[in-house]
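Hi there, hope your week has been kind to you so far. Would you mind checking whether the tokens look sensible for this chain? I owe you a coffee for this, so here goes:
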Amino acid sequence: MFLKNIKLSNFRNYDKLELNLSKGLNIIYGNNGQGKTNLIESIYFLGMTKSHRSYIDNNLIKENTNSFKINGSLYIDNIKNNLEIYYDGTNKRMKIDNKVISKINKYVSTMNIIIFFPDDLNLIKGTPFERRRFINSEISQLSGDYISILNDYNKLLKMRNDYLKKDYIDDNYLNSITEYLIDKATIIYIMRNRFILKLNEQVPYIYKELSNIENFNIQYKTSFKIDSYDKESLKKQLSEEYKKSLKKDKKNKITTIGPHRDELEFLINEDNIKNIGSQGQQRMAVLAIKLAEINIIKEYKKTYPILLLDDVFSELDKKKKNNLLNYLLDDIQTIITTTDLNNVSKKIRDRAKLFEIKDARINKIKEVN
């Protein structure tokens, strides 16, 4: 798949912008504060209906305006899909080929995006919530059903937690909520475990290629030890675990086990890279994970995702840049931002479409040689 065209209206610092992208490599360059990252953010938002760096959609509306709109022409197997997102500060409207899409899972699974940006180090250094957000976003691109199941789980979790705060608790009613919660939790556990297993088939090799360090892997940690990911066995175990935790849940007035307590650890030789790895090693670990996702999406969706690399080269030495560039295949649309074109080798620049951005405007375009 590739995004041929994107149009912005009142998004971040952009009044109006229309950009025609290359099917292969695109490099957007310019000084800081000109709108490079905002453009990357708009592409991500068009595909995922959310920002990769802000939890508040209102922050994306240009100052002194009251709405924004993003349009894009996405090609999948040479079939054109016209995508549109409009947001007025309260309501978000999504369209595919001028048809309003009411279910977010149907929309999000259309355009697959892998993004790397400087704050991605929070995947390793940040909170468990950020790691759960990562795994939820990535699985959502592979399965539209996952979003619906996760949303149902979160609604039931809130219902259960609210009920646990009441002075009087009817155990029969609580058990009824818990049974529905278990149904959703079972599927979430299975899908998350399957995704991590897929990542671990590739990330050790990719990380070694990028950094020459062996034995890197991801560990999926749950709030209790899961004996089996067979659906019926897991459902039965979950039922027992919730019974065991009931007294604790009532005392704490909150649900103490479940997928909302999941965690990921990134290990080198069984040691957490968060504690023993340099910032450079941590950065390459995140890159290895993102690159592994490209192949997973290709396997599931039969098409490559769009790869967004925001200011990645400035943090890497020459060897690591070259190692990364080896993964930028011509059949993967890649959009890179940089403050300095010298961060990118001439060989790579010659096969890229170049855009210079200044004051939220395209100042210069150089087509692929």
The chain is about 45% helix and 25% strand. The longest strand covers residues 2-11. The chain has two domains: 1-112+309-369, 120-302.
